[in-house]
Write a structure and sequence with these properties.
The chain is an alpha/beta fold and 361 residues long. The chain has two domains: 172 residues, FAD/NAD(P)-binding domain; 120 residues, FAD/NAD(P)-binding domain (3-Layer(bba) Sandwich). Helices cover 28% and strands 28% of the residues. The chain contains ten helices and 25 strands. It has a five-stranded parallel beta sheet. Strands 11-18-12-13-14 form a five-stranded parallel beta sheet. A three-stranded antiparallel beta sheet has the order 6-7-8. The longest helix is centred in the last third of the chain and has 19 residues. The two termini are 27 Å apart. The protein binds flavin-adenine dinucleotide (FAD).
């Protein structure tokens, strides 16, 4: 024990890195980040990686240490909140005075039979590495949400030799305003992506079984619908919701557990009008910044102001040359303005670059 306040950040994603960057500014604090990866790969670009593109990556240890932040490579298994320590799969332990839990999310492959065995995902960098390379024949992308739309369009544009299918329970993009959804459909058609509005009942070695009994043959199934979170919080007795996301108060403190905070996809963060914030980098990175500064303030005996997630845009890339940018109200309900085409692709790319730069500190 050095007499310094030990702030430990679990997870070097958008939320964790933003938190560490702020926390390290507290005088008298020592900040340690723990992650199972040694390299940062922009998660919001993983559909591009799946389509065979190179994306920026960088060494966590080198970048963090240059900022005076300690880095521990390891998988967190459990948090002992009584002893104030994190137990790693390696058997090591890391002690803390304040803990920021930012372990993010991963694909939920438990939604239909066969998905765990036969489907691939683009949810994490190791998931993408497991996708058969090179992809051949027909690829069925399941999920008409942002990740499914981005993955299907990126694949179709980068790999015109593939037959890309998008299988979705609803019209892709139907949660956006009609102009945005219509543009998404037009680009899917232009890129030759065949849209199948149907519910998937099971994934098999040969493709998909639909609820109506139809079979869709596919060489590869990419499952993009449904995200879940690491079980570390639940396993450690932190309060969690039915999806294992950590329950926090309006200052992102874990309910009933002093000096432990949770942020990003792994937490139930509230937005304006009390709405639960959707899992997104848009919510995770600013909230990480808030909690890092809040913990730093607490080290000096100050109580931070409450926090509310605020949304501004929904940006969806449709390959490298097209996109949709829809303005949102602060509570994440649809605004009335939407940009499409090259301008939208450019805006999305600038935002992704800015997010990547901010993550790199
Ligand atoms: C293909 C794709 C495109 C996306 N596009 C967008 C977009 O355009 N806009 C947007 O807002 N959002 C987008 N998202 C969602 C966004 O990536 C997530 O919401 C965001 O990454 C959440 O940030 P986070 O810091 O909470 O978690 P993450 O970024 O997931 O970081 C969590 C970190 O914890 C580490 N970790 C996990 N478990 C352990 C463990 N047990 N021990 C140690 N370390 C662990 C992981 O290695 C990871 O580094 C996209 C997601 C995907 C998959």
């Amino acid at each position: 024990m050095t007499g310094q306040h030990r702030i430990v950040v679990l997870g070097a994603g958008y939320a964790g890195l933003a938190a560490a960057q702020q926390a390290v500014q507290a005088k008298g604090a020592r900040v340690t980040v723990i992650d199972l990866h040694t390299e940062f790969v922009d998660r919001v670009r993983l559909h591009q990686v799946a389509a065979g593109q190179d994306v920026p990556r960088w060494e966590l240890r080198k970048t963090l240490e240059a900022k005076g932040i300690e880095f521990v490579a390891g998988r967190a298994e459990r948090i002992d909140t009584a002893a104030r320590r994190v137990e790693l799969a390696s058997g090591g332990v890391v002690e803390y005075d304040s803990l920021i839990y930012a372990l993010g999310s991963r694909a939920d492959l438990g939604m239909v039979p066969g998905a765990t065995e036969f489907a691939h995902t683009v949810a994490t960098s190791e998931d993408v590495r497991r996708i058969p390379a090179p992809l051949t024949g027909r690829v069925a992308v399941v999920g008409g949400g942002p990740t499914g739309i981005e993955t299907a369009t990126e694949l179709a544009e980068s790999r015109p030799d593939l037959e890309v299918l998008l299988v979705s329970a609803d019209e892709p993009g139907s949660w956006l305003i009609p102009k945005a959804a219509a543009h998404i459909r037009a680009v899917l058609d232009r890129l030759g992506v065949r849209v199948h509005v149907a519910k998937v009942a099971a994934v098999t070695a040969a493709g998909l079984e639909l609820v109506d009994g139809e079979h869709i043959a596919a060489e590869t199934v990419l499952w993009t619908t449904g995200f879940t979170v690491p079980e570390v919080a639940a396993r450690s007795g932190l309060p969690v919701d039915a999806r294992d996301r950590v329950l926090v108060d309006e200052r992102l403190q874990v309910r009933g557990i002093p000096d432990v905070y949770a942020v990003g996809d792994a937490a139930v963060m509230l937005g304006h009008n009390g709405r639960e914030a959707r899992m997104s980098c848009q919510a995770a990175q600013p909230a990480g910044k808030y909690i890092g500064a809040a913990v730093a303030a607490r080290v000096h005996g100050k109580t931070p102001a409450p926090y509310r997630v605020r949304f501004v845009l929904t940006c969806i890339s449709l390959g490298r040359r097209d996109g949709v940018v829809q303005f949102m109200h602060a509570d994440d309900s649809n605004g009335r303005t939407v940009l499409t085409g090259r301008k939208a692709a450019w805006i999305k790319e600038q935002i992704v670059r800015a997010v990547g730069r901010a993550a790199k500190l």
